[in-house]
Amino acid sequence: MGEAIELFTSNTSKSEDSWFEEENDVDLKLSFALNNEYQEIALSDTKHFGKVLVIDGKMQSAEIDEFIYHECLIHPPSYIIPILLRYISPKTVFIMGGGEGSAAREALRHRITEKVVMCDIDEKYLTDNQEAFQNPKLELVIRDAKLELKERKEKFDVIVGVLADPVEGGPCHQLYTKSFYQNILKPRLHKNGIFVTQAGPAGVLTHKEVFSSIHNTLKQVFKNVAYTAHAPSFSDTWGWVIPLYARASNSELIVDAGEIDRRIGERIDGELLYLNGAWFVSSTISNKATLDNETHVYTEDTAWLTRTDFTTNICLYYLVCTKLPNLS
After folding, report:
1. For residue 237, what is the enclosing H or E element?
2. Which of 2, 110, 157, 239 could disulfide-link to 90, CB 3.0 to 4.6 Å?
């Protein structure tokens, strides 16, 4: 098992939330946050996935494979799409959510990055990415990202949505609607700016939970590039969508894997553990059942999912963590 879970609270915190640990099994130790007005948070130490973060009963990040999720989230909009469309290299990034800091960590690996704004509604963070939180290029804002973008005057090269799925009753649903994308987010992008969002499970049997609806909603405002990767701790294929401010033609989106690999070496500090040019070529190819027939569009008054029962999800997650064979 990994080292004990630690937390730090931003200086803006006035929360009275309390934390306790409960060791349910040799393979699972839970730590809960109580009385959070925005969301239900569980932090766990697990045998097979290390430390994990669960929000509103849904897995958000796992120590053993979070690099897959966050490399796929941050690096395609930061260098792959700009390469294809010959855009100026992105220098400013706004992250909606991302409380444990992994998205900010990846954005700060780009040598040309000048500023990263991370805006999260909750003031509790894991300590795993202290180097990112202490980086002078990072501006940390504790606020509703919708309000922050609405009132902020500056524009960004890249905006990243690393938010919980749009569950009805949760804090993030309003950040997945057509009107939010059209009226608040798009005006905060530079002319050739790029937006990327996590888009939930994207498997053949799970894509209709949120993935196809997010993609179709964004398609009303932007031209989209959707891509997927398998995330072991999620036990599913996961999806991301990059909506482009400019409606590029399909011919402009032809990928040169070798060129992508060359740019990775030029621009990134350290070695990526998962992403390369060949992966991105294959990741943008989806089966015809996943996106073609979706008609649902998110609005302020509609939600695809209802709020799930938190305890039930934790119990199911416990079964997954403890019954899987040890693959190490």
Report:
1. strand 236-244
2. 157
Indicate the pairing of strand 50-55 with strand 58-62: antiparallel
Beta strand 41-46 pairing with 50-55: antiparallel
Distance CA 196, CA 173 (A): 16
pLDDT at position 68 is 95
CA–CA distance, 313 with 257 (Å, rounded to integer): 39
The secondary structure of 166-195 as a DSSP string is -BTTSSSGGGGSHHHIIIIIGGGEEEEEEE
Q: Tell me which H or E stretch contains 62.
A: strand 58-62
CA dist 170 to 165, 187, 210, Å? 9, 25, 14
Residues of the chain with pLDDT under 50: 1-20, 34-35, 251, 306-328
Count the neighbouring beta carbons within 10 Å of the beta carbon of residue 55.
26
Residues 97, 196: Cα–Cα separation, whole Å: 13
